[in-house]
Design brief:
16% strand, alpha/beta, 250 residues, 7-stranded mixed β-sheet, binds guanosine-5'-triphosphate, binds magnesium ion, 42% helix, two-stranded parallel sheet, Spore Coat Polysaccharide Biosynthesis Protein SpsA, Chain A
């Protein structure tokens, strides 16, 4: 529904990387992103002053790859959703990005899949592309049966109430045209922002395309979601509340 973007070599892509204690993962992740890039590509790391010194690693990388790697170190603000939104604002406002992508930084989402998401926008006519675990060809090999089952239930609940145009509402691996991001800001604290974002983008008429991806276990460091049933149930409440709010309160 939008004006076409310019030729691939002129399209500016920014990948926003929200980090909290990802010291061992961040360098291979950035290397993987840069090696696979099909367009001019910049990485913006939004780090919430990680105690493990992730920001120091990124600061050194930014020095070596001036312009390609940017560190945003937040000392006051905290939280996943606000970190991604901070990076999006910077990508569009300061670096004139045409497409912004974002993903987890635990190496569970393969960086080599970013070009597949970007191509879906550049060549496939999508406004938003997501890496989807729950579309044919995708999978979640990062988790055991219990979190997989909870994710299945949550996503089927979302499909029932919000529509089957998306099968992985909680993907968190996203590429979007800047125009969409100017109109739809991220809302929420954690991964529930993704449900809200995909639904509201769809309601505005933007085309969301799912690209199958296979997620793998975190390479190093600790999960922020947790590992047992109670962690998942506690984290899951705002996801359910978001689905309910979107369905019944718009
Ligand atoms: N900037 C910032 N990043 C965060 C914060 N909390 C989590 N993250 C990042 O968000 C991403 C997802 O965190 P994970 O620990 O992988 O949690 P998860 O993917 O929900 O849970 P798992 O399924 O266990 O991997 C990672 O890149 C984290 O470093 C935060 O408060 N601030
Ligand atoms: Mg993760």
């Amino acid at each position: 529904m939008n004006a076409p973007l310019s030729a691939v070599e002129q399209v500016q892509v920014c990948t926003v990387l929200p980090t909290y204690n990802e010291r061992a993962n961040i360098t291979p992740l950035i290397d993987g992103i840069m090696q696979g890039a099909i367009t001019p590509h910049r990485v913006l790391v939004v780090d919430d002053d990680s105690p493990d010194g992730t920001w120091q690693v990124v600061e050194a990388l930014a020095g070596q790859r001036a312009g390609q790697v940017v560190l945003i170190r937040r000392r006051e603000a905290k939280g996943l959703t606000s970190a991604i939104q901070h990076g999006i604002d910077e990508a569009i406002g300061s670096y004139d990005a045409d497409i912004v992508t974002w993903m987890d930084c635990d190496l569970s989402m393969p960086p080599e899949d970013i070009p597949r998401l970007v191509r879906a926008i550049l060549e496939g006519g999508a406004d938003v592309a997501i890496g989807s675990r729950w579309t044919p060809g995708g999978d979640d090999k990062a988790h055991g049966w219990m979190p997989r089952t909870l994710s299945w239930i949550l996503n089927h609940w979302a499909m029932l109430l919000l529509g089957r145009q998306v099968h992985d509402y909680t993907s968190g691996f996203v590429a979007a045209r800047a125009e969409v991001l100017r109109r739809v800001r991220l809302q929420g604290d954690y991964g529930e922002y993704c449900i809200d974002f995909l639904y509201r983008a769809g309601q505005l008429g933007y085309r969301v395309q799912e690209i199958p991806v296979i997620c793998v276990p975190r390479a190093s460091g600790e999960s922020k979601t947790g590992v047992d049933l109670w962690d998942y149930l506690a984290k899951g409440r705002p996801y359910l509340a978001t689905i309910w709010r979107l369905r019944f309160h718009g």
